[in-house]
Amino acid sequence: MADKDYYKILGVERGASKDDVKKAFRKLAHKYHPDKGGDESKFKELNEAYSILSDDKKRAEYDSYGRTFGNAGFDPGAWDFSSFGQGGPGGVEFDFGDIFDNFFTGGRGTRTPRGSDISVDVMLSFEEAAFGAHRKLIITKNSTCKDCDGAGAKKGTPYSVCEKCNGKKKIHDTQKSILGSFTTVRDCDKCKGRGEVPKEFCSTCHGAGIVRAPEEISIKIPSGIEHGEMIRLSGHGEAIAGGVAGDLYIRVHVTPHKHLKREGANLRMDLNVKLTDALLGADYSIDALEEKLKVKIPAGISSGEVLRLRAKGIKAQNGNRGDLLIRIIVKTPEKLSRQAKKLIEDLKNEGV
Ligand SMILES: [Zn+2]
Ligand SMILES: [Zn+2]
Hints:
Elements: H1 6-10, H2 18-31, H3 40-53, H4 56-65, H5 96-105, E1 118-124, H6 126-131, E2 133-144, E3 159-161, E4 170-177, E5 180-187, E6 196-198, E7 210-221, E8 230-233, E9 248-254, E10 261-263, E11 266-274, H7 275-280, E12 282-287, E13 292-297, E14 306-309, E15 324-331, H8 338-350
Parallel strand pairs: 1-9, 11-15
Antiparallel strand pairs: 2-7, 3-6, 4-5, 8-9, 10-11, 12-13, 14-15
The structure holds zinc ion (2 copies).
One zinc ion is lined by residues 162, 164-165, 188, 190-191, 195.
């Protein structure tokens, strides 16, 4: 857990207030809500980050040491949600009962059926990841039939009561066992829980309400996205008759840059500088992210010193640009001419 960036997980600044931390957590917890096909490991990670950053003592330890003490082996049973659900400013937005019921029962039960999630990979250049990009994907998947809006009926035709469930939408199955008889209730499969069936079917989907076809999906990839990040498009997964569509997950792959290394929104690079330029100062031209930049090397710079060019890094998702950090590497000449050696000996005698 030492290398996890809890601020990044919650998408807040280092100096974020407790309120902002709470707001960010609520928003993300909604997004990864298990009932909406949330991601269990992401959800745990959010809770872990929140449990640290919402606690002054733990947050201070984490800020100083990059970890907290005394809670090695994060205990999911000890999540502290006591500050939630009490109404608070803005009222109750978050139903933890709902989350936990689903979390621990796997979200099954008698809920509406949900289509499968789809995941696709998208390749981005380093620059596209830095500034954002647009992509058009063509995905062949089950979608709601547009001609009947998923109803399965020919537009304008009447429905009749489902004969199988008599319009009750549910079917009761009674089974006998050694413990006695018990009844299970499920959605009627004939009318898909609607209680009525079309008299005349839609000619496009033949009553299924679902068609399988290629669909073009336009996505806007935000600036500052990192390799391995996922974008979730809710409801763009596989559609299912009588239920809700799954989600579409887009996993982003970013090609590494030949000399720029990314560190959050900042970029790092090394710059080789001649010994005489380090001593006397000089102007260098470098290949930055989208342009050539002039860098002024101050006289007397040492190897290992870092120059910072403000706002020449990655455009973060909040719109601010990170910096470009240039580490100076002073190159000592391997061979010296007789004359150069003589000059350097003179320097030595000068006490340089
Ligand atoms: Zn029925
Ligand atoms: Zn249709």
